[in-house]
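Fold this: VWA domain-containing protein
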Amino acid sequence: MICRQKSQARRGIAIPVIAICIIGLFAFVALAVDLGMLAISRTHAQNAADIAALAGTRQLSNRPGVVNSNLAQAVAVARDAATSNFHRNEQFTLAQIERIDVGQYLYDPVSQQFRVSTWYNAAENPTPPSGSWTAMRVRMTAPQSTYFMRILGVNTMTTYAVATAVYRPRDIAFVLDMTGSMQFSSLFNYGSRSHNPDTLIPRFGHYSNSTIQSRLISTTNYSSGAYTYARNNFTIYTPGGPPIIRNFYFDPANLSNPTTPAVAVNPANLRNAFHRWNPPESGANSDTYTPPTYDFTGYDAFDTTNSRGPTPAPYNFQYMTDSGGITYVGDRWRRADGSINKTDTTWSTSSTSTKPATTLIELLGYNISGSNVRGGTSGTTVITTIDRFRDPIWEQYGYDLDIVAYRAAKGNGPPLNPGSFSTLVPPQDRFKGYSMGPGYWGKTFFIWPPDPRAPVGSPGDANYVPGDWRRRYFLNRNGNPFDPQVDNNPSTSPGASTGFEGINQVLLNNAANQLTVAGFGTTSNPNWRINYTAVLKWIKSDPQVLPPNLRAGRIVYYTSIPDDVNTSSGTTEQRLDKVFWKNYIDFVLGWNYINSGYLYGLGDSWSIAATSIYQNNLNTWTGPSNNWPSARPYMRYDDSPNRPRLHFWFGPLSMVAFIAQRYQVSSNVNWLPGTCYESQCWQLKAGMNSVVDDLRNNRPNDNFGLVFFAASHQNGIRVPMGQDYTALKNALFYPRSLLNAINSGNTTSEIRPYNLSFSDTISRAEIPNAAGSTDPVTGFSYAFNLLSPSTYLPASTYGTIRGRRGAAKVVIFETDGVPNTVRVFNFRMRGYDSYYESTDSVYGVGDGGADSMNTAYAVVQQIVKPMATTNASGVDSGLSLPNAPARVYAVAFGDLFDPLNNSTFRTTALQFLANVAAYGGTGEMGATTIPDDQIITGTYQQRIDRLRNCMQRIFKSGVSVTLIE
């Protein structure tokens, strides 16, 4: 009994204990199951927060036109990303997104760290205090129902997850080649030949000769072996780009009075300076150098409204014929029979009615036998010796004479007596003193033979007689008009000659195949001078083929066409205009320009008659009947000088050649505006323009800076490190000294690139165009400085942002050439404040010179070294971080790298770039080239597209958006 009672008592105690144990057991089960489910819930919430933060941050953008850094769209994307994820077996709801904050992941220069200083609730749609949103934080909540913990009174448990995504910061240094080879597809002349493929050229007179035509039209690219020089895009579309001729403008404010300086105050008023009207065009093919076909209907050479002329001029102006309702404007050169042919475009034939007259003897219908002149084209009667022969009827009326009728009247006999013949051509065919060329050639006063009359008055005067261009536009060595009655002997004293024969000997001497205008003597004591006042009056006369002022790309070339070149009078602007025009006139007329590299090269001999200038004194003659006034002939009638190519042509073509060839002519400076289609520069700029847009749209935490390199022209920082997208674009096109003003909205400021001595008033780095030699060490050294956080670099040059410690460093180096020059830099070791200091010492080493390449490699290797943790003096430092090594990318650009051109230095240049990539951590050691997508060749548009795609791939090579929480 007692035992039974004890057993029952034990059972009574065990039951509560078991119950208690079961409760504890369930509690542990609850912890295991419910907490495990909670962990799963938190993982799901964290995944949703991570994905939402990454997706939302990726939508943040500085793209133009978006509101508040595209914040509304970014928040919407983040929400969609969060609710697209599953919490266990159900999608997250909007209610489970507790909060979305945005902030700016910015560099603190004091702590030299990146952080988000302030978060803003995106639901409140705040306005950024400055800069742009570059970070997003998403906080998720996930209520989790319990299973076993309900017995403890806990029905739900809530988990939280936070994710912070940021745009990973990068500092990018763009290093762009602005060396002279970047203009090789836009050179006017090189290698003693034209590079213009435009077929719209003069084909009348001596231009009808096929050899001369071949010297004016370039049909193939020129190769020097080392480099290829493509046909230029001066006047037509080519693979290099649209026509440069269309890049210049003028202010029409002083159109009625070109001598009044015009200052552009409203860019909207500017008009195209050389493409003065827009005839409909079609059929151009830039890839095949096919010019456009124009519809010149309605052309008017005297139009001043920029709607019908004067340039480009019609096709029939090539032949001086009338066609399609368009009447030729200017003096028509005579055919060999003395006729004016207004319909036949055939010039180079054996027929005297179509071929051009070569000499005055041929034009007037005489012939020469030995030293004697005989009557008629086939007559045998000797009239007199050639040294005294003259025709008084011709010398009285010149090109106003009806030469065909006169030749018929005199037959095979001598010249008719003075006053015995006065039949003239119709008024519309009378001598005007200029000939118009087709397209952009403009006008010339050169005609051969010269009109014999003395010049009278000025264009526009009632008594105006154009007369002999040699007497109107040139003066003797004393500055006086040439006088035919002064009897000097030019054969023994050519420098002292003031006689008419002296004009031909001094101006047109053919020695050494010089230009059409070529003389003896020195600059300080020349044998002839230019009558600038007369030339300027003629230039301003109708048709006005040159605008009253000229500007482009914030560069003003001239503000007026002056009346003279006397710089002792006038305002500063007027004096500068005088300097410009004097030098342009010198250029066109050949004063001190006797090199084959100018204006399509040297003058040409005439294949039909021997090129000759009489070397003995001319003598007076009273005529065959001794009843003429005793006088010397105005020139020897069989003189045949070299004929000009583009010399003597005042117009858009020679003007742009003058501006473009400044760096070839004298001071090694190119004055083409940075806004023109200079190739290959323009293709690079156009590609970079789209690259900037990609940076803005997709890389809001990337800073960037810009360096141009070219010895000795480009030496310094073009754009300091930062995020000024407008500044980066403007720097590609506008003068350096105006960038701050332009970036601030200035639309009117301009610079003059020269002073009263016609020397450069600006640094050679002023205009962003092609000039100088290839010194890559300059580009890499300044790239290092851009990316360095060094406080020793002046804020005036490098800005206030500098390279950010903690940001990944990237150098993108573009070149179109092979290294050939070295600029000396000293490396200042100051830990992470290290920098390069230029000595401005530059020396050439020749194409592919090892010194130029090795100095560049050394800087690349310095860039990728680890960044020091201290800024102590003497401590070496690069730019690489443990989690963000610096990278250097190499980009090959242009003709040199096109395998079709077979350039000698292509292999050398590619090996150089392959080594740069290898040292810069973006290529393999031992490689001989770089990836194909980093070699930019092809046509104009292909190069732009390939460059943009190349840059985008480089940008995408690193992680742009990353989680930091």
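The chain has 20 helices and 31 strands. Residues 487-498, 518-522 have pLDDT under 50 and may be disordered.
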